[in-house]
Amino acid sequence: MNNLIAKIAIITLLAFIQSTFVMAQDGDTVTRAGTAAATDSAAAAVPMTDSLDIDLTEEPDSAMTPVETVGFHKMLKTKYIEGSAGFMSFVALALVLGLAFCIERIIYLTLSEINAKKLMADLETRIMQGDIEGAKTVCRDTRGPVASICYQGLTRIDESMEDIERSITSYGTVQSANLEKGCSWITLFIAMAPSLGFLGTVIGMVMAFEQIQLAGDISPAIVAAGMKVALITTIFGLIAALILQVFYNYILSKIEHITSQMEESAITLLDIIMKYKMTR
Fold first, then answer.
1. pTM summary value
2. pLDDT by residue (tens digit) across 244-280?
3. Are the C-beta atoms of residues 80 and 236 closer than 8 Å to each other?
4. What b/e readout covers 4-31, taking b as 16+ CB neighbours within 10 angstroms?
5. How would you classify residue 156: left for phi > 0, otherwise alpha for psi between -120 and 50, otherwise beta?
6. pLDDT for 187-237, tens place per residue?
7. Cα–Cα distance for residue pair 180/166, rounded to 1 Å
8. 180-209 in b/e burial notation, b at 16+ Cβ within 10 A?
9. Any residues with CB less than 8 A from the CB of 160 and at least 6 apart, and which?
10. Of 149, 202, 204, 157, whose CA–CA distance to 176 is shortest?
11. Scanning 118, 128, 172, 254, which has the fewest C-beta atoms within 10 Å of its C-beta?
């Protein structure tokens, strides 16, 4: 199930990126068409002056020439290409894969969250009434690690309190590991994105020095190309790492919330079982 969700998230992200590039190209085409139409209209609107023999259509006023607006998507695409598409592709791949893991974890953790207090109140009512099988059914029908831990404790309700506590603790460790599953990959991509950017920086500097060596002279025009690649790859690498870091911190906050729910519910369940045993 987790692998299916991850694949769906990756396909969705790739489709979004592709549609974004198509929209950028379409916007560029529409902008150019509008600019050409506006230019033709402005040229047609200028009257011809026969007495002065001046052809105003040949040299239109620069102030009347419309300025082509560059959209954000087109600018992003341009900078992506200028930053050397080879290295920028690795940075984009790290961002897409990192976001895919983040989306998978967010979906899993969101589905794992329940109203733990309501569940424990329902379990307490059934346990105190002696309906242990009904309490187990409630745990089976409820999603999330909290219900799984409660079910594990109810299966050993006839054993000693030490055995019940040991079973809940052991199973809680397994559930905590499931919550953190895949987070190591997210941290990997967070580290890879700026590292790939810095790699592009180093290679850009090498390109700049090679151009200086071939030209035998140091000038801004010679160094500019290599330095531009270096700076752009670094910027995109840092942006990708920042985006993934925000999602990663959000995931950690959800994991901490669910873990605290698990611990609180385990303590509550032990208290309920203790009261149940004392009334028997």
1. 0.68
2. 999 999 999 999 999 999 999 999 999 999 998 888 7
3. yes
4. ebbeebbeebeeeeeeeeeebeebbeee
5. alpha
6. 999 999 888 888 877 777 777 777 777 777 666 766 666 677 677 788 888
7. 22
8. eebbebbeebbebbbebbebbbebbeebbe
9. none
10. 149
11. 118
Q: Tokens 């090498």: give the residue.
A: 206
Pull the structure tokens for residue 70: 């560059």
- For the chain, the C-alpha Rg in angstroms (whole number) is 32
Q: DSSP label at 57?
A: T
Please provide residue 84's backbone torsions phi and psi, each rounded to the nearest 5 degrees. Answer: 70, 105
Question: Which tokens is 96 given?
Answer: 């897409």
- C-alpha distances in Å from residue 51, one per residue of 57, 58, 60, 114: 15, 17, 18, 86
Q: How many residues does the structure list for the chain?
A: 280
Copy the structure tokens of residue 13.
Answer: 């992200």
